[in-house]
Amino acid sequence: MIALPPEPLRAALLAWFDRAGRDLPWRRGPEGGRDPYRAWVAEILLQQTQVARGLGYYERFLAAFPTVQALAAAPLEDVLKAWEGCGYYARARNLHRAAAQVAAQGAFPGSYEGWLALPGVGPYTAAALSSFTLGAPHAVNDGNVRRVLARLYGERAPSPAWVQARADALLDPARPGAWNEAVMDLGATVCTPKAPRCAPCPLAQWCAARASGEPTAYPAPKVRAPVQAVQAVAALIGSRERAHLERREGTLLGGLMGLPAEALLAGESPEAALARLCARLGATPGPLLGQVRHGMTHRQVTLHVYRAQAELPLQPVAQAALARLDQKALALEAARQEGLFPA
DNA sequence: AAATCGGGGGG
DNA sequence: CCCCCAGATTT
Q1: Which residue numbers delimit the HhH-GPD domain (predicted)?
Q2: Which protein residue lies nearest to nucleotide C4, measured between its Cα and the C1' atom?
């Protein structure tokens, strides 16, 4: 392993950060002494979610739940509604659970280990929050850090342990929170995945990937599981404004509401699956409204949406937290209020 | 170590 | 179309 000189490298990156770092709403307050509630909500929201996308959700979420006490007291349905469309809904469920723990103990964690003990807080988030809110010397390891360090050291296949060791060694003990934010800002705005801008990079003089002439070769792309094609049927009972909805159980979209649905069994036709679904609901199958397709990283879902009739409770769709897939399905029923779509 | 969990931005 | 994103949890 090449030993990089830590002090000049730290000074160069922190000087760049102080000049060119991003101005983000969760960065208000003193360095190393940020408001733990605002910092925590941001870190959970930003897990596997790009900053530009998280911004809108952040403001709306804080407006709906201004304090951890308000979050703890709110029904989970309201929390999921605020999270609607953002994905990885276990984050919202864990955030709600953790809020109850924090409210019960009357204070936010005062250490890395304390943060790590909260549901939904793993090694990255505990390092981020302990450095941002407590000034604790813990180095974050996220996608940006992985890419920046892989390029800096010229490592094509950086393991999590390799990244953490390098991040720990480089962390500036005088400004751990600022250092963590600086590496992430560099990765997000300069050392980007496909088009790194080496010219303005404050670390260029030490960077092995830049010296190689092919910075984007570091790190090598991760091998990903193939996308699996899935088919299912759903029943629309009622209208797109007031429909019969079910709560999804399990890990996939768990906690969200959606149209009653059944996955097609191997070799099964959509009509047969619809018959199974209607038998379960005590409903009468109706005509096909259409199909919607929806991609979910490792799944490509084709949903066949049918109308159905039944004496089942309807609820206002606008107040329920729905996945994008169900919103697409509901959109198949054209709004037909008098005057909305004149003939 | 590998699989699973959403949805969208950007080349 | 493909890779990636302020990862965590479960297997």
Answers
A1: 45-189
A2: A193
pLDDT at A340: 44
User: In CATH, which superfamily holds the domain spanning A228-331?
Assistant: Nucleoside Triphosphate Pyrophosphohydrolase (3.90.79.10)
Residues A122-138 have a mean pLDDT of 98
Residue A335: what pLDDT?
61
Average pLDDT over residues A289-295: 96
Range(s) for CATH 3.90.79.10 in chain A?
Answer: 228-331
A255, closest nucleotide (Cα–C1'):
B5
* Residue A83 pLDDT greater than 70, yes or no: yes
Nearest DNA or RNA nucleotide to A46 (CA to C1'): C6
On whether the CB atoms of residues A258 and A246 are closer than 8 A, the answer is yes
A336 CA, C8 C1': Å apart: 43
Please check whether strand C approaches the CB of A86 to within 7 Å. no
Query: According to CATH, where is 1.10.340.30 located in chain A?
Result: 6-217
Residue A296 pLDDT > 50, yes or no? Answer: yes
Quote the mean pLDDT of chain A: 95
Taking only the tens place, the pLDDT of each residue in A218-239 is 999 988 888 999 999 999 999 9
Q: List the CATH code of the domain at A6-217.
A: 1.10.340.30
Measure CA to C1' and name the residue nearest C9.
A120
Task: Give me the CA A307–C1' C7 separation in Å, rounded.
Answer: 39
- Is A105 buried (19+), middle (13-18) or exposed (0-12) by CB count in 10 A? exposed
Q: Is the torsion defined by CA of A106, A112, A115, A118 positive or negative?
A: negative
Nucleotides of B under 7 A from a protein CB: 1, 3-11
Report whether A81 contacts A167 (CB < 8 A).
no
Task: List C-alpha distances in Å: A61 to A68, A70, A172, A288.
Answer: 11, 11, 32, 37
- Asked if pLDDT for residue A338 goes beyond 90, the answer is no
Nucleotide B4: closest residue by CA–C1': A251
Strand nucleotide closest to residue A224 (CA to C1'): C3
